[in-house]
Design goal:
Blueprint: H1 7-21, E1 31-33, E2 41-43, H2 44-60, E3 65-68, E4 72-74, E5 79-87, H3 89-93, E6 100-107, E7 110-118, E8 123-128, E9 131-136, E10 139-142, E11 155-158, H4 166-178, E12 181-184, H5 187-195, E13 201-207, H6 209-212, H7 215-221, E14 225-228, E15 238-243, H8 246-256
Parallel strand pairs: 3-5, 11-12, 11-13
Antiparallel strand pairs: 1-2, 3-4, 5-6, 6-7, 7-8, 8-9, 9-10, 13-15, 14-15
Protein name: Histidinol-phosphatase
EC number: 3.1.3.15
Family: Belongs to the inositol monophosphatase superfamily.
Length: about 260
Amino acid sequence: MPEFDDRDFLLSVAEAADAATMPLFRRQIGVDNKLDEGFDPVTEADRAAERAIRQTIRNAYPQDAILGEEYGADGSGARRWVIDPIDGTRLFISGVPLWGTLVGLIENGRAVAGIMSQPFTGERYLAGPWGAELVRNSYATALNVRQTRRIEDAVMFSTSPRHFTGDVRDRFEALEERTRLTRFGTDCYGFCMLAAGHADLVVERDLKPYDIVALIPIIERAGGIVTNWEGGRMEEGGHLVAAATQELHDAALEILAG
């Protein structure tokens, strides 16, 4: 199977998802809770976007497998598309435009292409063999991480400090105390800010494949590093450290190891 290099297809997937999400953003829509205890929201926007993405993929690549957050696994092809129709549903239902649609592609166990679409701001961050770029108003700009090397100079993003508990919380707080600035609540948008050179670190716990597969090639093609807390690959999820430079990545892993 030839290497995937269809940049235009990624953009067409984003268009299909955008058409499903934007009419429902900042509207009064129903919100369901996936959990018996706690709160994990899902809306018709999530479901409609995933259906649209799946159909777009099936039309173009019917032999490929698909894994989506809302509708699970489908197919057994050598290539696997991984979908999070709205990463940051809490942000979506709160009217905050830091959510995004994530669609990534795995070949031979590696994430090789992906897109994050934020239609309200008109931004599409995407990557593949051609590189990493931001497309806005039909204009493409190359993505490059910045060259921050000291934790003390780093800007770090994470979804929520509540995700870190017990001794893991102590280790995360030790890292946070060393950074210049830490901000929470950015979800997938924070990863793209890392790739675009506006931040230096992203640290998360318990990510699922659909949370990260699309973002791995965006960061790596921009020159960054994405691994789990043991330094391994993140295609199957887990605890994550994404960094702009090897020095930052090494330092963050050392602090998180305790």
